[in-house]
Write a structure and sequence with these properties.
The protein is an alpha+beta fold and 157 residues long. It has one domain: Gcn5-related N-acetyltransferase (GNAT) (Aminopeptidase), CATH 3.40.630. Strands 1-2-3-4-5-7-6 form a seven-stranded mixed beta sheet.
Length: 157
């Protein structure tokens, strides 16, 4: 029997419903913010997915905010497949893409800062992020009492 290989690739429209279900799973546990299905479709080009055989095991997005700033967001891995390096591969892929398109800084808003520290992200004050990024926050159920931790990584190129 042939062992299937894990592949990290750009998301396709056909992946959106599965990605939405995965993100909503963690949102219900209150460890990730929810994303509307429409928002996933609208931003499908931002997403990478981890796939093994015909199974989508994880997703992560790199959302461009400004000429030198992007956000890593919507990182989710199927619960049965956590702690296997899939999230790490997805974040590395987003950081590689950011560097390839000359993004200088990447940030994330997270409940798991330890995970992002291993990539060189450091905790920052929210006030250091541009106000433009808070457009999405206004529609969040946690606004204005957000408890996500902002982190930033400066890329070298």
């Amino acid at each position: 029997m042939k062992k299937e290989k894990l592949i990290i690739r750009k998301a396709k429209i056909s992946d959106a419903a599965t990605m939405h279900k995965l993100i909503q799973h963690y949102a219900k546990e209150d460890i990730m913010l929810p994303r509307p299905l429409m928002g996933i479709y609208e931003n499908i080009r931002d997403y990478f997915v981890a796939e093994k055989g015909k199974s989508l095991l994880g997703c992560c997005a790199l959302h461009i905010c400004w000429k030198d700033l992007a956000e890593v967001k919507s990182l989710a891995v199927k619960p049965k497949h956590t702690k296997q390096g899939i999230g790490t591969l997805l974040v590395k892929q987003t950081l590689e893409e950011a560097a390839n398109i000359s993004i200088k800084k990447v940030f994330c808003l997270t409940y798991i800062p330890k995970f992002f520290r291993k990539f060189g992200f450091r905790k920052i004050e929210k006030r250091y992020l541009p106000h433009k990024i808070w457009n999405e926050c206004v529609n969040c159920h946690k606004f204005p009492n957000c408890d996500e931790i902002p982190m930033l990584k400066c890329l070298r190129r």
